[in-house]
């Protein structure tokens, strides 16, 4: 009986902390208060590389994390990222966020490139997409032509495409890789672009803004969506589908439903969604939410 009283007391204490968080300016997933003018002076996606690790009222709680791993989804928050030297890259630290060990058919990771760093090639028959969230890198291919990739730009690199990503100062990339699934005689091509150059696409029945970074043609077995929500906007469809997702919240904050769970999320958070997990998002706060979303497409699930 005494143990039951202790457990009840502990639960009440935890609930009171969450209630306090919801009523305070420093909310559960809120960043420290900054003025609107300060926000405008920050570079785009600055919160991805400078995340709020935990609210002030929970900073002294040992073992605290918002990260969750379940059979059909995972929320990987910045305080749980583990960086180590990235295999075969030079002077680069990596944090693997989504891998086949979770049940995914793709890999998603952060690559923190330091001064005078460079990438290596992915495994044979593996396609790669890199998206720059901080700094700049130079993409060089076998013809010795080079392209500078800055924040908000990206490159899709077809399977077995020889290339190098080189960084003189420092940069942070989010990288997606998967074994290419061939379809007849279709082939993919090198693509270099930036989000602001991609057109807005129609989203029937929805209010969010959508851009797709890759062509929708059958050659491509995945795409990357950039989705923008204004505060208070939400998905109208409570999605349940066969596609997998890997998501990075680039800006803003909100609530993500995954299965029967509701998670506060903020810039810097990563989510893995397995096939058929119920999913839904609503944007909160005072600023735009933007997330980057991996989605497998154009292939028979058999």
UniProtKB/TrEMBL annotation:
Q: Write down the Gene3D superfamilies for this protein, in alphabetical order.
A: Jelly Rolls
The organism's superkingdom is given as Eukaryota
Tell me which CDD domains the record gives: cupin_UGlyAH_C
Q: Where in the cell is it found?
A: Endoplasmic reticulum
Enzyme type, top EC level:
hydrolase
Looking at the record, the residues that make up the Cupin type-2 domain are: 226-292
The family this protein is said to belong to: Belongs to the UGHY family.
User: This protein is called what?
Assistant: (S)-ureidoglycine aminohydrolase
Keywords, in A-Z order: Endoplasmic reticulum, Hydrolase, Manganese, Metal-binding, Purine metabolism, Signal
One GO BP annotation of this record: allantoin catabolic process
Q: Catalyses which reaction?
A: (S)-2-ureidoglycine + H2O = (S)-ureidoglycolate + NH4(+)
Q: Where is the signal peptide?
A: 1-21
Enumerate the cofactors the protein uses.
Answer: Mn(2+)
As one GO molecular function, the record gives: ureidoglycine aminohydrolase activity
Q: Kindly state one GO CC term assigned in the UniProt record.
A: endoplasmic reticulum
Summarize the subunit comment. Answer: Homooctamer.
Chief localisation class: endoplasmic reticulum
The EC number on file is: 3.5.3.26
């Amino acid at each position: 009986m005494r143990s039951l009283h202790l457990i009840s007391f502990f639960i009440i204490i935890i609930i009171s902390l969450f209630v306090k968080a919801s009523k305070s300016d420093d909310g559960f997933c809120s960043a420290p208060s900054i003025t609107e003018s300060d926000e405008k002076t920050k570079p785009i996606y600055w919160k991805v590389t400078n995340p709020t690790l935990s609210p002030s009222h929970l900073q002294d709680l040992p073992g605290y994390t918002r990260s969750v791993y379940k059979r059909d989804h995972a929320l990987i928050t910045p305080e749980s990222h583990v960086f180590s030297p990235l295999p075969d890259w030079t002077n680069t630290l990596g944090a693997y966020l989504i891998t086949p060990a979770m049940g995914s058919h793709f890999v998603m990771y952060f690559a923190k490139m330091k001064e005078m760093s460079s990438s290596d090639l992915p495994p044979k028959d593996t396609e790669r997409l890199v998206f720059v969230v901080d700094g700049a890198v130079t993409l060089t291919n076998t013809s010795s032509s080079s392209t500078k990739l800055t924040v908000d730009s990206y490159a899709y690199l077809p399977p077995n495409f020889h290339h190098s990503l080189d960084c003189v100062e420092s940069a942070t990339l989010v990288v997606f890789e998967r074994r290419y699934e061939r379809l007849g005689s279709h082939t993919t091509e090198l693509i270099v672009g930036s989000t602001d150059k991609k057109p807005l696409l129609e989203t029937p029945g929805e209010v969010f803004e959508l851009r797709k970074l890759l062509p929708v043609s059958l050659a491509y077995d995945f795409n990357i969506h950039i989705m923008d929500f204004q505060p208070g906007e939400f998905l109208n469809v409570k999605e349940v589908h066969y596609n997998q997702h890997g998501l990075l919240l680039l800006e803003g904050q909100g609530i993500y439903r995954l299965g029967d769970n509701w998670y506060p999320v903020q810039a810097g958070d990563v989510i893995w969604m397995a096939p058929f997990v119920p999913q839904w998002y609503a944007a909160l706060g005072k600023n735009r939410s933007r997330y980057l979303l991996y989605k497998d497409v154009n292939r028979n699930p058999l």
